Amino acid sequence: MYQGKRIAVIVAAAGSGTRMGxxxxxxYVSIGGEMVLEKALKAFGNHPFIDDxxxxxxxxxxxxxxxxxxxxxxxxxxxxxxxxxxxxxxSVYNGLKVLNSLDQKERQAQKGLLRPDLVLVHDGARPxxxxxxxxxxxxxxxxxGAATLGVPVKxxxxxxxxxxxxxxxxxxxxxxxxxxxxxxQGFLFSELxxxxxxxxxxxxxxxxxxxxxxxxxxxxxxxxxxxTNIKITTQEDLKFARGITREITDETNVAAVGxxxxxxxxxxxxxxxxxxxxxxxxxxLILGGVLIxxxxxxxxxxxxDVLTHAIMDALLGACGLGDIGxxxxxxxxxxxxxxxxxxxxxxxxxxxxxxxxxxxxxxTVIAQRPKIAPYIKEMKANIANALKIENTRINIKGTxxxxxxxxxxxxxxxxxxxxxxxxxxxxxxxxxxxxx
Length: 436
Known about the structure:
The chain has 436 residues and is an alpha/beta fold. It folds into 2 domains: 7-265, Spore Coat Polysaccharide Biosynthesis Protein SpsA, Chain A (Alpha-Beta Complex), CATH 3.90.550.10; 268-423, CATH 3.30.1330.50. The protein is 32% helix and 26% strand. The protein has helices at 36-45, 62-72, 88-100, 106-109, 131-144, 189-201, 209-215, 235-255, 306-318, 324-327, 340-353, 376-387, 405-408; strands at residues 7-13, 30-31, 34-35, 52-57, 78-83, 118-123, 146-152, 158-163, 166-172, 179-188, 221-224, 268-280, 285-287, 290-292, 297-298, 356-366, 394-399, 412-423, 429-430. The strands form 5 sheets. The chain has an 8-stranded mixed beta sheet, with helices on both faces. The longest helix has 21 residues, at 235-255.
């Protein structure tokens, strides 16, 4: 997000790379131990402004990209892998059609399926896009509605003409107003979609997305790019790219001494939960879904299962989904005396909807009495069943406060829990073009 605007990136990587030679598409060539396309995807996946990445590749490369980037490398924010078209413009349009088909509902937004406000388009063969350049582009696109990166040309640019199979210089152009245009380019989603639709209607083939947008009368602002943000097209480009990689590696090694670590994608997340309930008479004592014979129960709106409540909060916290009070308010009559295991199942669904799988759960019951050791096995089974995970990923233990505090005075029971979740390694493979 940037200033409340959702931002998606279409990474166009469906080219065949015929000028590269060697039988391998340019975007899959390795430089510095990483594929060209992988470097580009990581740049956007690690950037805080970027919400969603939609990767467009050749149809025959879709499974390979899924296995390499989703399953193996678990790259973040890739929401779909989309089949490309017969040329770059058609591939970008395929991506736009998928974006336009997304559901606007908030529940779908939790899955990364919300239509964006701004869309960036980037060539998958440009591996060296910097976070600073993305910052500049997003700020400009949010302000003007359309923006592109560019750098001043350094060489003299001449217009030539052909005479008897030879080329001759006709005139040299003024370099002051000549820029080499780069990607990413950023636009209001509605502007770019309209520009592509108009181009298709008019059977117009542009050189880039900024050109299509300008063609419909929308001005495009220019912001400073980087000379290192090269597009790898030929073997000569590849040699230059490997030189850039060595330079970046050397600078990183020097800068790493005494510096803060760089950010990494949040593949794994942890959360903690804590809950307390007071003892009351004439109520069942439920812990981990187990009815425990005892003279007191716990006071609460639901069944007051303090252990399960702590686990629920830990899972919600790990996914950034708030707390149980927000999801199951204690003034809602529908939750009166409800089994907390049923609420735990609802939390499991929320975790899944947010795109996460549950790694493990560790819970601690804090009570002077009763002793919970005889019931731990059954508690683990109940919680594992509600979360649909193996018992081995659940740990439950009990402790006392050595007579100290409200637990020591046997006024109630407390519980705390921690949970680990990880981003689900999945993204749909979209081969059919949505109708828009």
